Please model this.
Amino acid sequence: MSNTNELIDFKEKQDYYEGKSPFALSIARLKKNKWAMFSFWVLCIYVLSTIVTTYNVFGIHEAAYDFNIKNRYVPMFNSISELFGTDTFGRNVLARAILGARISLFLGLFSGLIMIPVAILIGSIAGYYGGVMDDISVYIMSVIVAIPGMLIIMSLVQTLGRSFLIIAFAFAITGWVGLARVIRGAFFQAREFEYVLAARTLGANDFRIIFKHILPNTFHFVILRFVLNFVSVIKMEVFLAYIGLSVIGVPTWGNMINESKTELMASHWQNMTAATLFMFIFLVCLNIFGDAIRDAFDPKLKNV
Model:
């Protein structure tokens, strides 16, 4: 009886996988993860909030920037429109926290868009060809790793100026090395696998082998590193704001935490509570969803 049930389960699995692309199977595995889907919808709310701030829906810019001294230090949960109260200058803390989400998303995405192509290109070429190309790549990566990342970021911000483009660029310069090393190691192993040797025997050129056959099998590494970079960017922006190197006057989560230093001595928790809560929820959901995507697209787990 048990053997019959095992055969039925195997047949059902075979029917389920038959005719579906690897991408469709990965999406199906991702949808089965309830925490991942919950985190996905929370992240969608954050993305929606950036659209709201971009088009100034509900007058959110005025609420976040305009001074109103008569309305300063309104306590939290006083009303829906002022859910987290107001700060020293009477500005709506909830509106400023929502604007901070837009800045954080921009920094994470922009630095990732710079970092990932560079890391994939250098790591794949170094791992696939080896030799002189690998020696040059390893030397460049070793030089960058030898210098503290925060020191590079602070130097670039001080030299090139305080702007979010410069900050994102500085994060990308220090963040691509880790992913490049992982991809390099994966290519070192994969270039001797049977499917790569078979593709080479059938006449496939190097470009096709790298980007069609090997790179898709390292996609889960790219996702994981992108999520980790996103988290690091947000935390580093908070640190830069705390030491006074972020863009002044713009409501970011880092600037809000920095402004709360003087407010906490007067027992005003509005800025600190809103910024840390928004940042905590975003980072937790991003980590959960990123881990779920990595597991769903990992080719070693395709039949799980």
